[in-house]
Write a structure and sequence with these properties.
Largest sheet of chain B: 5 strands, mixed, barrel
Largest interface: A-B, 31 and 23 residues
Strand content of chain B: over 45%
Number of domains of chain B: 1
Oligomer: heterodimer
Structural class of chain A: alpha+beta
Strand content of chain A: 15-25%
Shape of chain A: globular
Order of helices and strands of chain B: EEEEE
Number of strands of chain B: 5
CATH topology of the largest domain in chain A: Pnp Oxidase, Chain A
Chain lengths: 485, 85
Amino acid sequence: MSKISAPKSNREFIEACVKAGDAVRIKQEVDWENEAGAIVRRACELAAPAPFMEKIKDYPGFSYFGAPLSTYRRMAISLGMDPASSLPDIGKEYLKRTNSEPIAPVLVDKKDAPCKENILMGKDVDLCKLPVPLVHDGDGGRYVGTWHAVVTKHPVRGDVNWGMYRQMMFDSRTMSGAVFPFSDLGKALSEYYLPRGESCPFATAIGLSPLAAMAACAPSPIPEPELVGMLSGEPARLVKCETNDLEVPADAEIIIEGEICPDYKVEEGPFGEYTGYRTSPRDFRVTFRVNCITYRNNATMTISNMGVPQDEGQLLRSFSLGLELEKLLRSQGIPVTGVYMHPRSTHHMMIVGVKPAYSGIAQQIAQLAFGSKLGPWFHMVMVVDDQTDIFNWDEVYHAFCTRCHPANGIHIYKNTTGTPLYPYATPHERKYSIGSKVLFDCLWPVDWDKINDVPTLVSFKNVYPKDIQEKVMNNWTAYGYPEVK
Amino acid sequence: MKNMWEVFVMDMSELAEGKDIELSIRTLNPGLHKYTYKRVKCQVSAKQDKFSDSLQVRMGRGQLSASKFSIKVLEEVERMPEKYR
């Protein structure tokens, strides 16, 4: 593999974004109460450069970096690619790196770990010493974790999990968070810790390198510390926590250590969510008790402001869910041409391109997709043929509206796994994470005669001879039209 | 000093008047600890001048209610099990 020059820390990433014109330095003081969140939200809705807010009211020395990966340009920068790289090229690079040999992390000494520059223990522990923002007006609290990794380790298997579970500051030493029962952490809590009444050690890492955040967000079976190494081309640098045995990214801006109390829940939410709504109401959720806070000098807190498209909650999740499903389908020998989730679907619709090689292939794809670990995060699968450009919504929408038979092409799956965040779900379904799924089969049936039954696509590319196409394209400006880019 | 508090409820009936009730309320007082919570035993009233502290109300998805209350905090309630304190 050629040498990868991806940003290795949040600070390197900010510098790279500023240099490329994909981040702006905001020098004037910004209020942690709503103003910072509003800046990030507006930047997301305008697809504007990421705001790097260097002066926070009440919190001298701290800064914010918002909307870190809410554009494909910043995603390309995070991977060390040309910011102008196309989405298919970014996807190919992600697949190449994540199909490479795992790269194990290295453990560094405390003295070489910037995240240990300041350490708060005992009575000094107070989450209010960090510039925790009120991200949206009306949120249930100030959110500590919106773009971060909650690090845990399975008590029996020992496998490490980094997950992006949102965390609200309840009081100076307590956070509450949304941990779904089907998630890795949710399963460990319900299967192991809750029956035993034991607390679960955790560490929240904030201000990660963009690829560490990408790994925490990706639904990959590869352990996140190794996945970071594969994405960045070199081992992730980890350091041991102060109060438990977990290992955390040494270059993170802020680390919060503590224990999850499985049999004690406090109120969490509401919060603006990736679907573009506040769907899940305030409720009793998982409690994180804080024992220690460590942070870099002049620490930068990262903020993701979820709401209507598009922010990194939609963009990155769509990206990684689509590519992980592509890997799964290829591993099963299905002749897919690609998988794509448009971020504006708020990662609810999976578009799969496939060679229609045999009957029932769309159903096979949907059953694999919905039945996989990825399944709870989306409820629509649309299967189109290999002649349809899955990245071109105009083509996909045309295929959907013309080839999906209203009676035969729509397949509904009831009583599946869902999430409490689905806006369309009934209150009962949200409470118990019950979902429903739908497949839109936009393939011509294989038992239709290709000459006499399958309609012919009438398009410039499809109905004219090659020489005529070339003549028209070559003469396009001569006809008086502006050049087509 | 008059304190400002806020509470989230799913239904206004959770704010029963004329008796001691338990609520999780968050402070709206300016400062670093703004928006942190306490669990309290308290009395509330729809009459804003009945008690010295004010209570603003939001619904379950953050909608600000037009109703304003006053509140008297009687005592803090510790819910956290001893083993986690």
